[in-house]
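User: Fold this; tokens only.

Assistant: Input:
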Amino acid sequence: MLVVSIIVIILGVDPRPARWYQLFKEMPTDPWGNGYIYRNPGMKNPGGYDLFSAGPDRQADTGDDDWGGG
């Protein structure tokens, strides 16, 4: 992004919010050791986003997908 590059050149540092902190050292994985799937816009929630696990078969959009919710 050109604006960020210019800021870095002028200031000599990356622009970061004053109150930023890292939430995770690594991205969380599902119970099967795979990354979660994020879609925006969502297929299940077209007005928002989808966040789900592909489940034990590791294939998205199959019957064993884990959509959470308790």
